[in-house]
Structure formats: C-alpha cells, structure tokens
Design brief:
The complex is a heterodimer of chains A (219) and B (495). With 219 residues, chain A is α/β, with parallel strands linked by helices. Chain A contains 6 helices and 12 strands. Chain B is globular. Classes of the chains: A alpha/beta (219), B alpha/beta (495). Bound molecules: iron/sulfur cluster (SF4). Chain B: InterPro entries: 4Fe4S_Fe-S-bd, 4Fe4S_Fe_S_CS, FTHF_cligase-like_sf, Helical_ferredxn, LUD_dom, LutB/LldF, LutB_C, NagB/RpiA_transferase-like.
Chain lengths: 219, 495
Amino acid sequence: MSSPDAGSAREEVLGRIRQAHTAAAPQPWPYDDIDRGYREPERATALTGEALVELLVDRLVDYKAVVHRCAADAVGETVAARLAGRGARRVVVPVGLDPSWRTAEVEWLTDEPALTVDQLDGADAVVTGSAVTVALTGTIVLDAGPDQGRRALTLVPDHHVCVVREEDVVHGVGEALTRLDTGRPLTWISGPSATSDIELSRVEGVHGPRLLDVVLVGS
Amino acid sequence: MSTVLLGMPGLPPASPRGTGNLRGDEAFPDAARSALGNAQLRRNIAHATTTIRGKRAAVVGELPHWEQLREAGRQLKSHTMAHLDEYLVQLEAAVTARGGVVHWARDAAEANRIVTELVRATGSDEVVKVKSMATQEIGLNEHLEAEGIAAVETDLAELIVQLGHDKPSHILVPAIHRNRTEIREIFLREMGDAPADLTDEPSALAAAARRHLRRKFLSARVAVSGANFAVAETGTLSVVESEGNGRMCLTLPQTLITVMGIEKVVPRVQDLEVFLQLLPRSSTGERMNPYTSMWTGVTPGDGPQEFHLVLLDNGRTRVLADEHGRDALNCIRCSACLNVCPVYERTGGHAYGSVYPGPIGAVLSPQLTGVEDNASLPYASSLCGACYDACPVKIDIPSMLVHLRAEHVEEHRRQSRTPAVESVVMRTLSWVMGHPRRWTAAARMGRLGRLLRGRRGTIGALPGPVVGGWTSARDLPAPPTQTFRDWWRGQEDQK
Ligand code: SF4
C-alpha cells in the first residue's frame, strides 16, 4: 500500500532469505526432531491438588498480590469484603460475570453499552473471572471471555479483584497454552503492575492496576 | 524474484549507512576509555547487574529442566531460521486473515517511511510507544520527529532516557546507568509535573511516571510497538513487559503499528511454552514478568481496530548468510549476557555505540552493518564465556567473536593495512579460540594466559591496532595461569 514497490520489498526480503540459505546452507532440522526433553522433568515435578494451590498462593504472595481463599458459595461476600477493604464505590464488571459474585453494595458499571475510557478511569475497581492460572509462575491468564470482558476493563481501573477457580489452575506454562485459544486476545498477569527499571529491583505499581486481589475459589 | 536472483551468488546487503542507530560515533576503545573513568557510572551498573545476577540465578535454579529448555530454545530457533521464508509467508497469511495488514521493509529507511505514512493516514501527530529494540535500531523516533510527529516513550526507563536527553545503555533497562538519586533529579528538572517533594524511593518515582503519562495513554489514537514473538501458525503477536504501559499502548488506541525484525517469528503456539519460561527468568530474574499480551489481528470491539505489522530486514538476511554468525539471530533480547559480562559491567552500554550493547551487541551489530563499520566491537570482550553460559538459547558468542575478529583481520589483510605478522598471530589465536575444545584445552594449560599476558600483568598484548587500543584502555588483571572462565568465577566470588 505505502509505496509503489511495496510488493517488491516483500519479494526481495524473501529472495534475500533464500539467497542466504544458498550462501550458507542451513542444517536440516525437522520440526518434529526438536528435542522436547524439558517436558518429562516438567511432568515429573508437577504438583496436584492442595499442593498445587499452595504453590500458586506462594507465588502470588511473592508478587505482592493479596490472596483470599473461599468456598464457591462465598464468592460474593469475599469480593464485597475486598472492595470494601479498599474503599471502592464505583466498580466495573463485564457483562457475563456471575450475578452471585456481585452482591456488594456498590455502584456497578456494566460494560454494556461499552464504557468510555474516562468512565473506566473514574471507576475505583474492576471485578472479573479468569480463564487459566499457572501455579508455577503465579500467572493468571485472561482470555476476554464473557466473565472477563474486553482488555481495557482490567487495565484502566487501579484495583483488580480477580476470581480464580481452583479447577482452572494448572502447573506450568505449557499446560496453560494447550487450554487457551490464542485467537482470542490474551493477557497474562503476574502480580500487580511493576517495574525493574530503577536499579533493577522490582517495585510494584506503575501503569496497570496497582492492587491485585485474587479470590481463589475451592472446587 | 528474478531481480533478486540476478545478484546470485552474492550476499544479501548489510544495513545501509545513514539511517538508524547501529553505528557509534567513535570506536569502542575510545568510548570505553571515558566510561572507565566514570566511577559513578561503573558503580551504578555494577550495583544493578549484581542484583540481577543474583535474582536470575535463584529463579533459574528453581527449574529442574532449565538445561533442556535452553536446548529446545536453541533448536527451535535454528529450525526457524532454516525455514524463515516459509514461516514469514505463513505469518503474513495468518495476520491478514484476521484483519491485519502486513508490510515488508528492506531497511531502516523503508520501515521509517512505512510507519510515517501509516501514522499520517490516521490524522494524528502523536504516537505512544512501547519500548522496542527494532524501532530504536531504525531510529524511528528521530525520523517521526523530523516529520512533525511526536513519539512519546512510555516505558519508565525510556522515559528517564528521553527526559535526561540521554542514550539507552542496556537492552532491557535502558537507564541502568542511572541510580535513583539521578532519576529523581531528572524528573524534578524535566518532567514539568513532578511533585516538589518527590523522594528518591523507587515507588515514588514510579508513581510520578504514572501520573505524567496517564492522560497520554487515555487519549492516544496511535501506538507503535515491537514484538517479542510472532506465531507463524496463528498470526499471534506477543509483547512481554512489566509496567502495563505495553498493555495501554496495545489496547487503548484505535491504531496499532508493530515493527518486528523478521527473526522474531516462531513456528507454533506451543513453542511459546519454551520462550515464556526462558525469557523472564533470564531477563529480569522473575518467574514471570507482570504482563504478557497476545493478540491476533483485529478483535472486533476489543483493542485497536486497525493493525499493521511491519516486517524488518535491515541486515538480518546478511547475518543469515554467515554460517558462523547466523546464530546471533536466535537472540531473544533477554540481556542476560550483558548482566554477566565483565567488560559491559565496567564500560556500560554507551561505549558500544550501537543500540545493541554488551556481548550480543558485539556480535550482532558488526554483522548487521558489515564488520568494517563496527570493526572494534568484536574485540570488546575477554572471551571469558560467561555470556554463553547465561544465554537462554545457547548462542556461542565467544566463538562468534573470534570468527568476526578473523574476518576483520582478513578484511584488513585484503586491503593490506595490517602487517603480515599480526594477522598470523591473530589467525593462530582464531584457530585456538575458534574451536571450543582446542580453546578449552589451550586455556586450561595456561598457554593462552601466557600468550595474552602483557608486561604489567594486564591483558595488553593482543596484536593489531584496534585490539591494542582496547586492551590498553582497561585495567583487567590478566589470568596468569587460570582460564578466563575460572578467573571470572574468581572475580565473582570476591564480591
Ligand atoms: S544473546 Fe542470549 S543472553 Fe544475550 S540477550 Fe540474546 S538471548 Fe539473551
């Protein structure tokens, strides 16, 4: 589009790659021959059940996220306590959030019709579910599903209350990838926003939510 | 295609002169000399790299399968480079199918032109930027500025560099040469809206940056990013970051333009399981970085509704044409090799001239530009091997440096500027160092140590004008009979 010879740039770059391969023939290395030797030790050390959940809690706390474990029928009150604990009054929710999770006495801002950026900026908190969580790295993955909403919802408000179901917790990154659909926008979250830019030490709280409350729901 | 084949059996062109930031103003030895005299700079860098080395070692030690992951990373990259044309075509088709537009850029100037036209088409005269090595490499900010478009860097370290009228000195943490006190002073002086009672607490500094950039994020219409990975199979792009400035740029604006080196493609989604484990542990020493975003083309109702992907060559195909150098394309820009490098630790990043400093810069920059344009960089190393040990995709930087030195000497010989005796010594060294087993054997027996040791017990005896210049500018003790590796480990233990 941008210039008359845009098409030739494509052909030329591809041609240069083939030219390079001719000048220095690459070693044949079929994809299926790639050594996946990391998978076996990974599987062998994978935890399950309560040990897996404890690992997750340990990792989350290490990132300065706050973790609250509760039973499936206590999510609403746990969420309410987290919101109240931070003084949140205007709270964003995606359309598909389980109604029993939103029992708190706050002003709920549902993302339908779509909230403006300024409305999101004016909100105190956001409550969402989650798609998959990696215990080993303490990483919660959002896939923009109905209980999570579009990406901006969990980005602009300063306080994110995220509900994680124990049945969605996996051990490693590889397992998480097999459960996810990368056709959807994915956000992998490991703790509140942070930076290592000052003397290479991690400091929590920059542009993303500065507070991350994780509500961990038993199965 | 026929136009290209006419040039056979030549080599693809290096990154052309004139545009971009791959070449420094002075040779490494000269630039290093002034850095070596700056005690504050050395202290800041030593403090930061010592911190990060400790954190990296701890999180790497947690994974029983780390070595297997490194090997898989190396093989995946080698496989991809052997099929690079196929994977790029596949990526293009997948991105296009999801509503993205793919552009190809032969060099920096072409990439800059493409981005400028895309920004112009939106009617905006400002873009927010996520830190990206590719756009630094091509000098995009300077180009946009000249075209009347303001480029706002949103990464904290980039902001520190931009406000400090400074240059980046590290791949991951461009302001690593600044300590908290200096950052506070820069913010108070340049930010305009920094609170008068700003302290030098990192959290207070981060909060000041948040306030400063907030409005920009919420109102920006165009963002420019790089990419850490692009999955050929699905067209999925990924940016790995910490602060949330990346998410802001990738989510809120209407238009997103991603500039990506062609070597960033990976075959399949599942391959990310390797790189998402290797990268954060190697770079910031975290089990996982705070935020990783993945997106595929355009998602209606969520994020930018216009997406452009610019695929950049700029000398990469030239690197691919060198059997001994092409592994430099496997780099995932983690910066672990910088953090363990004794030379980097003493000179900092600016001395390397190019936007790619440290060990990877010493092998990548001269290859992208042609070795004659960055001739001193292959000598900016003590060949201690720490970079190789730290590299998550096992790039053998020391062997590559030796190869490039030999190439440089050869080039000089061809232009008969180097006395024959020096090139003979150099070639002997290359022969010894060029092969891991010969190198280890020679070094272990202390022969190399004696060969390299100068009169005053410093490494000052390397032949050649450039080598001599560089080695005389530094004050590293030479290893009397130890290997470089052992010597370096010893240095570490003393800390
Ligand atoms: S060469 Fe290896 S260690 Fe250095 S930045 Fe690249 S991937 Fe990291």
